[in-house]
Specification:
Layout lengths: L8 E4 L2 E4 L3 E2 L8 H13 L4 E3 L8 H10 L7 E6 L1 E3 L5 E3 L3 H15 L4 E7 L17 H13 L3 E7 L3 H7 L4 E5 L10 H10 L2 E2 L19 H10 L3 H12 L12 H9 L7 H8 L14
Parallel strand pairs: 3-4, 4-5, 5-8, 8-9, 9-10, 10-11
Antiparallel strand pairs: 1-2, 6-7
Helix pairs in contact: 1-2, 1-9, 3-4, 7-8, 7-10
Length: 300
């Protein structure tokens, strides 16, 4: 196994960042002191982009980031997400209206103690899995992009991203200057290969969420697949490292944001940037497309 990375850095808007960042969602669970320790260790290991949202833990996760890392290092890029809010009953609900997007950006800035956000991803809610927009929450994409563009012009965000979108939606949004797309994607679930190809063509960062699968029905866990586990054992790495390394090797546009509450897993995740699968593993993983999985519902 060659441990020399093809490239340790990728593009996130106008910034060079390490291809492995940190997804903070899992930090809403567990001990806050442990979460602060993990965040600080991530920074020590060189992680320079963190993915978060004000609706993670009803603001808890952003509070933890501020406690751990404020004042923020100049090279740290904080990426957040809007399009949902935590309902008083603690259920996540759609918040797709332009005014709600603006309010969410302001909430993120305030909670993080930041003057500007590196990227704000608009989480569309057209179809499952996850939240879906109905009634007056079914907002047209152009209206949302106009509000985010205004926020960018005001200097409150640097870049606009999208999440949970189709190829048609990405093409519609590209004139707004999209820098990032977050879609569900992994070695077993590749319903958005067309969106990935468009990201490559237009210099847009591709940030797969659920990179190792999810608990949603029809989306199996990558680490449970015997082909992944078998090649990982042969190469002396974990199945999680193998699944993440395949994503980095599959496209130079890919940036990863694996999350964890464990210091050991954090070190393993960061180390993935230095793993390049051999041809035998790569070809075997490539052949898993469409195998033992349900197709995600098409986005329209």
């Amino acid at each position: 196994m060659d441990t020399t990375p093809a490239s340790a850095y990728g593009k996130l808007g106008g910034h060079d960042v390490l291809r492995v960042g940190f997804g903070a969602m899992q930090l809403e669970h567990g001990d806050p002191a442990d979460a602060v320790t993990v965040l600080r260790r991530a920074a020590e290991l060189g992680v320079d982009h963190i993915d978060t949202a004000q609706f993670y833990g009803d603001g808890k996760v952003n509070d933890l980031i501020r406690t751990a890392l404020h004042p923020y290092a100049e090279q740290l890029r904080i990426v957040t997400k809007v399009g949902a809010v935590t309902h008083p009953t603690r259920r996540l609900t759609a918040a797709q209206k332009p005014a709600e997007l603006r309010a969410s950006v302001e909430d993120n800035l305030r909670a993080l103690g930041a003057e500007r956000l590196a990227v704000v991803n608009l989480r569309r809610a057209d179809v499952p899995p996850g939240i879906t927009a109905t009634g007056d929450q079914a907002v047209d994409l152009d209206s949302q992009l106009a509000e985010l563009t205004a926020l960018r012009d005001e200097g409150k965000i640097d870049g606009i991203g999208l999440s949970h979108v189709s190829l048609a939606q990405l093409r519609q949004a590209l004139p707004a200057g999209i820098v990032c797309v977050q879609n569900l994607y992994n070695v077993l679930t590749r319903g958005h290969e067309d969106v990935l190809a468009a990201c490559e063509a237009h210099g847009v960062a591709w940030v797969p969420y659920f990179p190792l699968g999810s608990a949603f029905d029809g989306f199996p866990k990558v680490t449970d697949h015997p082909v992944v586990a078998g090649h990982a054992a042969r190469l002396g790495i974990t199945p999680a490292e193998a699944g993440l390394a395949w994503l980095l090797g599959h496209s130079p546009a890919t940036l990863l944001i694996p999350g964890t509450r464990d210091l050991g897993h954090l070190a393993d995740n960061v180390a993935v940037a230095a793993i390049r699968l051999d041809n035998e593993a790569t070809e075997a993983f490539d052949a898993l497309s469409g195998a033992a999985r349900a197709e995600p519902r098409p986005l329209r």
